[in-house]
Specification:
It is a single chain. The chain has about 350 residues and is an alpha+beta fold. It has 2 domains: about 110 residues, no CATH class; about 230 residues, Rossmann fold (3-Layer(aba) Sandwich). It is about 35% helix and about 20% strand. It has 12 helices and 15 strands. The strands form 5 sheets. It has a 4-stranded antiparallel sheet with strand order 1-2-6-7, covered by helices on one side. A 4-stranded parallel sheet has the order 10-13-14-15, with helices on both faces. Helix 5 crosses helix 6.
Amino acid sequence: MILNVFADSMARHAAGGSFSHEIFRAAVADVFRQVHGAYSVVGFVAGEGLFAFRDPWGIKPICLGRRVRRDGRVVHAVASESVVLEALGYEIEHRPAPGEALFISHDGEVRIEAISPSRFRPCVFEFVYFARPDSTLDGTSVYRVRERMGRALARRVRALGIEADVIVPVPESSRPAALEMARELGWPFREALVKNRYVGRTFIMPGDGARQRSVRHKLNVIASEVRGRRVLLVDDSIVRGTTSRQIVAMLREAGASEVVLCSTAPPLRHPCVYGIDMSTRRELIARGRDEAQIADLLGADRVVYQQLDALVASVRDEAQQAVDDTCHACFSGEYPTGDVDEAALAEVEQERLDAGA
């Protein structure tokens, strides 16, 4: 869709003439006016060069890398996460701001221009779940953010008077937070769940059946680490509850005397329309339920969620000057683009239902 809008605009502005930076700039501006939502784009204009641009809210991450080849030639690449570029020997040269576009010509000239800036609202769920811990998003370390999430959640656990014998992370994304919780609370940390690395992420698998089958194939419990113990299970988030329910059951089968499930993210009660696969409200286990009801559905003794202000503070800690806020629509129902209302949500949900999602 974005490509079609962009290419059509380029053709109209060129009117049969040759390519120019002014035409490129006008086409990006047209995309920003017509395409509302979250997107970071990278592409190639044949015979001209590489381009990239980021939506005016900066919801999705993007970065530009630079590498000097052995022959002295400077080459560039664009990716969503810094770790992709660093693994290929690039250094991060620039992180496009919201509403910013860049063009790199064949001779290596880099042109960067702010076209439609707005408030900076990066997606908080990238830090919670999607991004690799060794990435930095807009200069903020994902690993450090997850550590801060753990410390904040530990304070909440302490305030609630919860006690446990062992802290167990759900691999992989919750491990940094769980480690910090163990340090903060002074409780033993155990890798009691071992991941099969050949099974993909269950969150993005189509249908509950596939997700339920994959959890059992994906994780195995080291029974000796949980048998007869009160387990504080730490996960990055609870979306549909399919994975959480299976893991709680596996821990009980392995002999855990109690299972308290802690989420480093707040309750997910609103659909995401910005590219994350949770666009129907009926899928969200926290929708219309309190923590006690959710715990009952998951088979846990208790469920503890991170508080939204603590989560946002964890992300903003290293980027106070750059980040106005975060996109936390899936937690708060506040959609930063300002054009998502009940009718739009109902339309998206109906499209998913019609498609058999």
